[in-house]
């Protein structure tokens, strides 16, 4: 798998990572409200991060499930939409929360498991900077003509 690197583009052209970051900056809830950042892009793959702040915590001090799900959904959106001819929207998402994070950063890695004419299936593993698996989120997406 070839991942996009954080390097300046040649001759004024943006590299794939810069293009993905620019495109998905429009996902303002994920990027502005939760601080999600695209870290890597490759065909049918994305890695995104989110620095944990007090705004991500629930009443018990743990990271809110909704914040974890948002990061996973953002990674799915990047993996299933960047560099694809058709747009993809989620039609189902299932999260299994496995552990509370003790770290300061969450990462979500989305990978395509199955692609079809109309639908696709991705798995997103969410883990923290201490390599603790926090959640596994599966998404079924629908390919749509929206571009």
Describe this structure in words.
- With about 150 residues, the protein is an alpha+beta fold.
- It has one domain (about 15-145): Thiol Ester Dehydrase, Chain A (Roll), CATH 3.10.129.10.
- The chain is built from 3 helices and 6 strands; from the N terminus they run ααββαββββ.
- It has helices at about 15-25, 30-35, 65-80; strands at about 35-40, 45-50, 85-95, 105-115, 120-130, 135-145.
- Strands 1-2-4-5-6-3 form a 6-stranded antiparallel beta sheet.
- It is globular.
- The two termini are about 25 Å apart.
Topology:
Blueprint: H1 16-24, H2 28-33, E1 37-42, E2 45-51, H3 65-81, E3 87-97, E4 105-115, E5 119-128, E6 133-144
Antiparallel strand pairs: 1-2, 2-4, 3-6, 4-5, 5-6
Query: Strand sequence of the main sheet, in spatial order?
Result: 1-2-4-5-6-3
Label the overall shape.
globular
Q: What is the arithmetic mean of pLDDT?
A: 90
The oligomeric state of the chains shown is: single chain
Q: Note the main sheet.
A: 6 strands, antiparallel
Distance between the termini: 27 Å
Write down the Rg. Answer: 15 Å
Number of helices: 3
Fourth-tier CATH superfamily name: Hotdog Thioesterase
